[in-house]
Design brief:
The protein has 2 domains: about 5-175 and about 315-320, 2-Layer Sandwich (Ribosomal Protein S5, domain 2), CATH 3.30.230.10; about 180-310, 2-Layer Sandwich (Alpha-Beta Plaits), CATH 3.30.70. It has helices at about 60-70, 95-110, 120-135, 145-150, 190-205, 205-225, 230-250, 255-270, 290-305, and strands spanning about 5-20, 30-45, 80, 85-90, 90, 155-160, 165-170, 180-185, 270-275, 285-290, 305-310, 320. Helix 2 (about 95-110) packs across helix 3 (about 120-135), helix 2 (about 95-110) packs across helix 4 (about 145-150) and helix 3 (about 120-135) packs antiparallel against helix 4 (about 145-150). By secondary structure, it is an alpha+beta fold. The strands form 3 sheets. Strands 1, 2, 3, 6, 7 and 12 form a 6-stranded antiparallel β-sheet that branches. A 4-stranded antiparallel β-sheet has the order 9-10-8-11. Strands 4-5 form a two-stranded antiparallel sheet. It is globular and about 55 Å long. The protein is built from 9 helices and 12 strands.
Length: about 325
């Protein structure tokens, strides 16, 4: 950003869903990771064009700032948001730019008001403000992405449907498990996919319950398997299949062709892959039990013209600038 800060700010990572897509909306547990492509929130005298956190531009960040200031007191200046690290070739990567902006905005207010963002207590306070901002804009969302963007690392997350009391506990990544992040090159609309799933619930509730029940069961199994690389590969394949079944029932391209190709290449290399997030494009997460298997996947992706993102999963959450 070119404008000088007048009071300071904060940054927050993006996110990747490891497991729990869709099922987390029904109260099942999810695992979500921070991604070290970061959003930046700075208080400035005048925000650059396109970076002002307003009700129409970065609305979650705007709402998170308002909620934090309501409790902590106002901060002078405009809030400028920079999410350029979470984009590629002018498109969103699908790693949570809105949630990262909300977390950074909440952290910026706390930092300016003198709170230590390295404190777990303060980070969880930031999470509360960012979740309030998220809920204002996306009341049907789970908030799992906000938790990873605020707390960092790997988080087991659960929210009871209809309530906003959440569980968010940090997890350790299995040491022997190797990840790759594949970008489809196709931006997806999470809202459009969720609307199709909601429409399935209205027109065919029994089919919806069966599909969501399968996802919820697989979400529980995934969390139970976390820590065992072999079991996680099986859980990843099953979860991908359950997401595909939901998409076919809803007429929604959750596991569309690019994502299906990534999953097939990962399996041939000895690993497993699934959409990360709502699907329909964006990114896929591929997991492997060895670096040799991951290297075979790398080569297969190069031959297939599939881009792999050089990103770090885990790492710090919200922090001051």
């Amino acid at each position: 950003m070119s404008r000088a800060p007048i009071a300071g700010g904060a940054s927050a990572p993006g996110k990747m869903m490891i497991s729990g897509e869709y099922a987390v909306l029904a109260g099942a547990p999810a695992i979500v990771a921070a991604v070290q492509t970061r959003a930046y929130a700075r208080f400035v005298a005048e925000a650059p064009t396109g970076q002002l956190a307003s009700a129409s531009r970065f609305p979650e960040a705007h709402a998170a700032r308002g909620r934090a200031e309501q409790e902590l007191g106002p901060v002078p200046g405009e809030l400028a948001i920079d999410v350029s690290e979470l984009r590629r070739e002018g498109q969103k990567l699908g790693v949570g730019s809105s949630s990262a902006a909300a977390a950074a905005a909440a952290g910026a207010v706390l930092a300016v008001r003198g709170h230590d963002l390295s404190s777990d207590e303060v980070q969880r306070r930031a999470l509360g403000f960012a979740l309030d901002g998220h809920r204002t804009v996306a009341p049907k969302g789970s908030g799992a992405d906000v938790a990873a963007c605020t707390l960092g690392g790997f988080v087991r997350y659960r929210r009871t449907p209809g309530h906003w009391e959440v569980e968010a506990d940090r997890l350790a990544w299995p040491k022997e498990l190797v990840w790759r992040v594949a970008w489809t090159g196709q931006a997806a609309s999470t809202r459009a996919l969720i609307e199709k799933v909601d429409a399935l619930r209205e027109r065919a509730p029994r089919t919806y319950d069966e599909a969501m029940g399968r996802l919820a069961d697989e979400s529980e199994r995934f969390v139970e398997a976390f820590g065992d690389a072999g079991a996680l590969l099986d859980a990843t394949r099953r979860y991908c299949g359950a997401m595909d079944a939901l998409g076919q029932a809803a007429g929604a391209p959750i596991v569309e062709q690019r994502l299906r190709t990534v999953a097939a290449l990962a399996q041939r290399a000895g690993g497993a892959a699934k959409p990360s997030g709502a699907g329909g494009g964006d990114v896929a997460l591929a997991l492997f039990g060895s670096r040799e298997d991951a290297a075979r996947f790398d080569e297969a992706c190069r031959e297939a013209g599939i881009a792999l993102l050089d990103v770090e999963l885990g790492g710090p959450g919200v922090r001051p600038l």
